[in-house]
Design goal:
The complex is a heterodimer of chains A (394) and B (362). Chain A has helices at 16-26, 38-58, 71-86, 103-114, 161-170, 186-192, 240-254, 256-279, 309-315, 335-341, 343-348, 362-382, and strands at residues 4-5, 65-68, 94-98, 118-122, 144-147, 174-178, 195-199, 210-214, 284-286, 296-302, 318-319, 349-355. Chain A has 394 residues and is an alpha/beta fold. Chain A folds into 2 domains: 4-12 and 256-386, Aspartate Aminotransferase, domain 1 (Alpha-Beta Complex); 16-254, Aspartate Aminotransferase, domain 2 (3-Layer(aba) Sandwich), CATH 3.40.640.10. Chain A is globular. Chain B is α/β, with parallel strands linked by helices. Chain B contains 7 helices and 19 strands. In chain B, the strands form 5 sheets. Chain B has a 6-stranded antiparallel β-barrel. In chain B, strands 5-2-1-6-9 form a 5-stranded parallel β-sheet, sandwiched between helices. Chain B is globular. Classes of the chains: A alpha/beta (394), B alpha/beta (362). Chains A and B meet through helix 4, helix 9 and helix 12 of A and strand 5 and helix 4 of B.
């Protein structure tokens, strides 16, 4: 049975042009960019060229591009490093946190809260609009960081950062954006964020590389020490091959081909969505209330155990997940879905996230429709006594 | 694709279920491994989850990887807590001594997990239990004791819904434990020499009273001191809480008696623990409640064999009376270990007829 991979939001294969660009830096002895000899100079040049190309693609200055070891590290560094940089006594610094953030932001913020940073909720509507509470007296005198991811990894919901940014500025606060799933909005998001976390491998780049885009004057303090690499923010011998690959992946994402690819995936996603909801009208599409990533179809199936669908699909050769890969196996409803739709709804559905990427073909989507249909048919038939067949449910 | 269809094997990480998976795979089944995550006693938001049973899950996954079969972990914590742990606590609170494994089998393993197996398109579910299924009569499978009488686990399966019997497979039923270990060693299964699990899986400290203290309200009578009395009503001491006692127990009653004393009865309403001699403990007549039948129920006057403890012998007995939810039993010989709350499984020869929970006759 041919396997159909619909979990590109969790990991997507390396793009061929990325592989090709990385190749020369993966083999043989190459210099450490910090050295003084010719091999070192070559490595440094490649690294700085990767930085410049990434910056140009994102519409930022090269000094604002810091290569780190992945999206999770970029998020941790942005939050923890911000608190370190503003250096305010505990109880003064405040983080406004949306309830839909990835665990690498949420758990970092929660850890900081235990150390005395104040957490304030940033309410978010299912259509992606966030409401920053207004405080009487205009700009806050406290150091404040507002965290809102660009695109939800669970539903594909595009958040209204442009609508939020003026309020953030008016308070004198700083805006951190987790842009890991913003493959198709990189330029738009990059101009709005003070700090922006990206992960190369979600763009068809290497897994080893993350990018933290840092607005000049808003630099976080380093968390690691032992070398001045990456503008002092992230010491350690640089991953030249990774940086080169990341640059190519980011360039491709913002290119005209990248735009065409996004439209192609949107068509496939809509086909998948239409076919499933026509046949199973009780299946709820999550995130349809507003703008959405073309790569993600998030479904909520009522009356089914929450851990069942991805496993049942795996046995039929369709690879997908229930939501965040890091949460697989947990029966608690996702905090993200609860934040969008309320706890009651989040509890009542089994989430299924089908995510498309550059290797996804129209034939695969058609085959997936058949296999997903067979699984939903079987599962809903078994659950029938509970009253969930047909379109009668919720 | 193989010939015999898809089957889910409940894998605990131990040697029995590991070998069960091997035997089914070799028998042409399309085997899916599954491990239940039943409870979690340590959970802090910052450190993710540290779970008891995690070792078992990892062992099961390792074996499944070796066999190249899919392996899934199913979180059944909510249902397990409701159906097994809550019941366990409630029984002790009532002065009885429960068999949580019976509840887990009937509600969780052959209930919740079986439901998932069907949703995954499996034609059945298999475990490493030492019992057999006889399918001679089409549509009416019989559950039989395991061939290895020392390991036989039919006692724990009386609570299964009769309708699930056709879906069950027990590949170890014809084997002895020694044979199972030997086969596992031949196959170099990582779990071949893993020790038997003895403890109650959700009581990691080994002392169930820790769990009761956590789950019962403060100053619950079961955990509050009360009198130790003789069968004649004489108060001869004080105990720390009747939840520490089991009918038939000898330990913990203090010394200084002319002959050994045993717990005869626990009276939750007065918090009395009644003690007496071995003769006073012996009992021939008792009732069995919360009945479940895996075969046609017996009639009054029928002879059956009753098993009142795991690994205890089957005792010749007679059905005195039977109602929808209660059967009265009389053993041929009075017995010392008839403990309220424990299971009484009823057999006819090798065949498990059904069972229920022991209550003392009025």
């Amino acid at each position: 049975m041919k396997r159909i991979y619909l979990d590109h939001t969790a990991a997507t294969p390396l793009r061929p042009e990325v592989r090709e660009a990385m190749e020369p830096w993966l083999h043989g002895v190459r210099g450490n960019p910090s050295g003084v000899h010719r091999s070192a100079r070559e490595a440094r040049r490649a690294l700085e060229e990767a930085r410049a190309r990434t910056a140009a693609a994102l519409g930022r200055a090269p000094e604002e591009i810091r290569f780190v070891r992945g999206g999770t590290e970029a998020n941790n560094l942005a939050l923890l490093g911000w608190a370190e940089a503003v250096g305010s006594p505990p109880g003064l610094a405040r983080i406004h946190l949306s309830g839909v953030e990835h665990s690498s932001v949420r758990e970092t913020a929660e850890t900081m809260a235990r150390r005395g940073v104040e957490l304030a909720p940033l309410p978010i509507a299912p259509n992606g609009e966030a409401q920053l509470e207004e405080e009487p007296g205009a700009a806050s005198s406290r150091p404040e960081l507002v965290c809102l991811m660009a695109v939800s990894h669970e539903t594909g919901t595009v958040h209204d950062l442009a609508g939020l940014a003026p309020a953030v500025r008016a308070r004198g606060a700083q805006l951190h954006v987790d842009g890991v799933q913003a493959q198709d909005l990189l330029r738009e998001v990059s101009t709005l964020a003070d700090t922006l976390a990206l992960s190369a491998h979600k763009l068809g780049g290497p897994r080893s590389l993350g990018v933290l885009v840092v607005r000049a004057g808003r630099e976080p303090a380093p968390l690691l020490f032992g070398g001045g690499q990456e503008g002092g923010l992230r010491p350690g011998t640089e991953d030249v091959a990774g940086a080169v690959g990341a640059a190519v992946a980011v360039e491709w994402a913002v290119s005209p081909e990248g735009n065409r690819e996004a439209r192609r995936l949107g068509v496939l996603r809509d086909r998948l969505e239409g076919a499933i909801t026509d046949r199973f009208p009780f299946v709820r599409v999550l995130g349809r209330e507003g703008r959405r990533s073309p790569r993600i179809l998030a479904l909520g199936v009522p009356g089914v155990e929450r851990d069942l669908l991805p496993r049942a699909l795996d046995l039929e050769g369709v690879e997908a997940s229930a939501g965040a890969a890091c949460r697989s196996g947990s029966l608690e409803p996702s905090p993200g879905l609860s934040a969008y739709f309320g706890l009651e709804l989040a509890r009542s559905i089994a989430p299924l996230r089908l995510s498309l990427g550059w290797t996804t073909t129209a034939e695969e989507v058609e085959e997936a429709i058949l296999r997903i249909g067979a699984v939903l048919e079987r599962i809903t038939a078994l659950a029938a006594p509970a009253g969930m067949n047909g379109g009668s449910v919720r | 694709m193989t010939g015999r269809g898809r089957i889910l094997v409940a894998m605990s990480g131990g040697v029995d279920s590991s070998l069960a998976a091997v035997l089914l795979r070799d028998g042409g089944w399309d085997v899916i491994g599954a491990t239940m995550k039943t409870f979690c006693y340590q959970e802090t938001p910052s450190h993710g989850r540290t779970c008891c049973g995690l070792d078992g899950i990892l062992d099961a996954r390792r074996v499944a990887d070796r066999l190249d079969i899919p392996h899934y972990v199913f979180d059944v914590e909510e249902a397990f807590t409701r159906d097994v742990i809550d019941d366990f606590v409630e029984e002790y609170a009532e002065g009885r001594t429960p068999n949580p494994c019976v509840r887990c089998n009937s509600q969780t393993k052959f209930g919740d997990l079986l439901q998932r197996a069907r949703a995954l398109g499996c034609e059945g579910i298999a475990t490493g239990h030492y019992v057999r299924i006889a399918r001679e009569v089409p549509g009416h499978p019989a559950l039989l004791r395991g061939r290895d009488r020392d390991k036989d686990q039919a006692y724990f399966l009386w609570g299964l819904d009769r309708s699930v019997l056709p879906l069950l497979h027990f590949p170890l039923g014809e084997l002895t434990k020694a044979q199972v270990r030997e086969r596992a060693r031949e196959l170099s299964l990582e779990t071949a020499d893993k020790p038997e699990s003895q403890e109650i899986c959700f009581v990691p400290t080994g002392d169930y009273r820790d769990l009761l203290r956590r789950r019962l309200p403060d100053r619950h009578p079961a955990l509050t001191p009360g009198p130790i009395v003789t069968t004649a009503g004489e108060v001869i001491g004080e105990h720390e809480g009747y939840a520490s006692f089991t009918v038939g127990q000898r330990k913990g009653l203090g010394g200084g008696f002319a002959e050994p004393r045993y717990v005869i009865e626990i009276r939750p309403e007065s918090r009395e623990v009644v003690v007496g001699t071995r003769e006073e403990l012996a009992r021939a007549r008792f009732s069995v409640h919360d009945l479940n039948w895996l075969a046609e129920p017996p009639s009054p006057g029928d002879r059956v064999e009753a098993q009142v403890r795991h690994r205890a012998p089957a005792l010749g007995a007679r059905v005195l009376a039977i109602e929808v939810n209660r059967v009265d039993i009389e053993l041929d010989q009075p017995r010392h270990a008839v403990t309220p709350g424990q299971s009484c499984a009823l057999f006819r020869g090798e065949r498990l007829l059904g069972g229920g929970r022991i209550r003392l006759a009025q």
